[in-house]
Design brief:
Blueprint lengths: L12 H26 L9 H4 L7 H13 L1 H4 L6 H5 L23 H7 L22 H11 L10 H14 L24
Helix pairs in contact: 3-8, 7-8
């Protein structure tokens, strides 16, 4: 029995050129997948300051506090007091916020402009917990809609509906609203966002 002969292949310059973009795309997708696997969520221990705002919380409120800490606290602070609080956790040389909060940044930028400037316009992140912080929204439904359409910047609507529901439920509870019975987005219509936090 004779060994099969190997058929020689010819690689031309044009065949290498046509596969190169696919190789680059494949490597980029594989890198992104590995990065997502390594992007660990915040643990309850790391979110201790945020969880302390809703002691004895369970379910959606507790999960929302951890999600808030992971997705929102970089701009709004661990205890929801806004950018002034958030900056205290930044490295010393980053506390002047010259990347994100540069006055010359346009009000909105596309992803290429953000990457080029290594910045995005976030305005001044307000306090989201405390007297009057969210009372303008009136109900949990309005708050949910606003958060989903605008947060986190610069990638609004990048979380799942369930994650937005949990963050909204946490914020409502941290502002004194009765959010214990919330299970679905529809339940948020019964949650009244108060003017003062008890």
């Amino acid at each position: 029995m004779t060994a099969p002969t190997k058929i020689p292949t010819v690689t031309t310059r044009s065949s290498r050129r046509s596969t190169a973009p696919w190789v680059v795309i494949g490597i980029a997708l594989a890198s992104l997948a590995l990065w997502n696997l390594g992007a660990a969520q915040t643990t309850a221990a790391e979110a201790a300051a945020t969880l302390a705002l809703v002691p004895n919380a369970s379910g959606l409120v507790r999960d929302g506090a951890i999600l808030y800490d992971h997705n929102c606290s970089a701009c709004h602070g661990d205890t929801g007091q806004g950018l002034a609080e958030a900056k205290t956790s930044f490295p010393e040389d980053k506390r002047n916020c010259t990347s994100c909060h540069r006055p010359s940044n346009p009000a909105q930028m596309d992803h290429l402009a953000m990457n080029w400037r290594f910045a995005f316009d976030v305005g001044v992140a307000p306090a989201v917990i405390g007297d009057g912080a969210l009372s303008a929204f009136g109900t949990g439904t309005a708050l949910f809609g606003y958060i989903r359409l605008t947060m986190p910047r610069p990638w609004p609507d990048s979380l799942t509906s369930d994650e937005y529901l949990r963050i909204t439920t946490f914020l409502a509870a941290a502002n004194g609203a009765d959010a214990v019975r919330v299970r679905t987005v529809d339940d948020l219509s019964h949650v009244e966002i108060r003017e003062t936090v008890p």
